[in-house]
């Protein structure tokens, strides 16, 4: 039977949020701390890491550790640091991703495609590999990968990004079947358009009126009539990491305001 207050089964748990210093990752880190988890957040940007650590320490036990998910050695070191600090790794969230280059396939350079897939696919693989090894040693845990609705269908002007997110869902589903009987539950979330710093960077070349017009046009395509907030995605990630979702494995949870319904 699940606990009577399942969200608080995260209290005292060791959690690692990769890509946890901005956007959905940071909102997820705050949500874990609100439920009493002990937290390590990671990214490859030390400035973002320092700012996030200062903010998160006002909410609970948290620290930053640098990590480049494209380098398996630094990922292994990150997981080892988390286990050394907290004694185990109970919950992991993989939210690191590169910026999206908007262009049709023939316009993308090979280097741009390689960089996207190295971060978005191999980066998730590296994280899962070492997280799973740690969880097998501890006989259990949860992993939630941040994919996208772009991993469920084609996305104009983002073919390689879409391919990468399809791959993340494939990694999630396949690994979930391999490890659920060994106590590791692996799921993914598939957010639709969400207000994040990365989305803001994609419109940095536009003036304020153009940005507002673009967002209003996008919102009209979404049945709920607006973009998501990062905190709304974080709530789903927390649920998938809690005992309340104990029977959920290999799922790609769509959180898109009805966009793909």
Key terms:
alpha/beta, Rossmann fold, seven-stranded parallel beta sheet, two-stranded parallel ribbon
The CATH architecture would be 3-Layer(aba) Sandwich
Q: For this structure, what is the CATH class?
A: Alpha Beta
Structure classification: alpha/beta
Poorly predicted sequence stretches spanning 5 or more consecutive residues: none
Question: How would you describe this protein?
Answer:
The protein has 261 residues and is an alpha/beta fold. The protein has a single domain (7-194, 229-255), classed as NAD(P)-binding Rossmann-like Domain (Rossmann fold, 3-Layer(aba) Sandwich), CATH 3.40.50.720. 46% of the residues lie in helices and 16% in strands. The protein has a seven-stranded parallel sheet with strand order 3-2-1-4-5-6-9, sandwiched between helices. The longest helix is centred in the middle third of the chain and has 29 residues, at 110-138. It is globular and about 50 Å long. The two termini are 32 Å apart.
What's the structural blueprint in terms of helices and strands?
Blueprint: E1 14-18, H1 23-34, E2 38-43, H2 46-56, E3 62-66, H3 72-86, E4 91-94, H4 110-138, E5 141-146, H5 159-179, E6 184-191, E7 194-195, H6 197-202, H7 208-221, E8 228-229, H8 230-241, E9 252-255
Parallel strand pairs: 1-2, 1-4, 2-3, 4-5, 5-6, 6-9, 7-8
Helix pairs in contact: 1-8, 3-4, 4-5
């Amino acid at each position: 039977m699940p606990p009577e207050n399942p969200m608080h089964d995260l209290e005292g748990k060791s959690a690692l949020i990769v890509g946890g210093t901005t956007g959905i990752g940071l909102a997820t880190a705050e949500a874990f701390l609100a439920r009493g988890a002990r937290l390590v957040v990671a990214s490859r940007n030390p400035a973002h890491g320092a700012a996030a650590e200062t903010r998160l320490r006002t909410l609970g036990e948290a620290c930053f550790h640098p990590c480049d998910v494209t380098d398996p050695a630094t990922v292994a070191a990150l997981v080892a640091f988390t286990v050394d600090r907290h004694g185990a790794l109970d919950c992991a969230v993989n939210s690191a991703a590169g910026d999206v280059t908007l262009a049709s396939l023939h316009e993308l350079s090979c280097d741009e495609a390689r960089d996207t897939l190295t971060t978005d696919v191999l980066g998730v693989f590296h994280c899962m590999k070492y997280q799973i090894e740690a969880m097998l040693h501890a006989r259990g845990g949860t992993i939630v990968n941040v994919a996208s609705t772009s991993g469920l269908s084609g996305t104009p002007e983002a073919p390689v990004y879409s391919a990468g997110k399809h791959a993340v869902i494939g990694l999630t589903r396949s690994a979930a079947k391999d490890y659920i009987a060994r106590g590791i539950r692996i799921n993914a979330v598939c957010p639709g358009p969400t207000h994040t710093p990365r989305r803001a960077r994609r419109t940095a070349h536009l003036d304020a009126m153009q940005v507002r017009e673009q967002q209003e046009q996008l919102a009209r395509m979404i049945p709920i009539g607006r973009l998501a907030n990062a905190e709304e995605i974080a709530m789903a990630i927390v649920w998938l990491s809690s005992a309340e979702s104990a029977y959920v494995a290999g799922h790609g949870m769509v959180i898109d305001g009805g966009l793909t319904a």
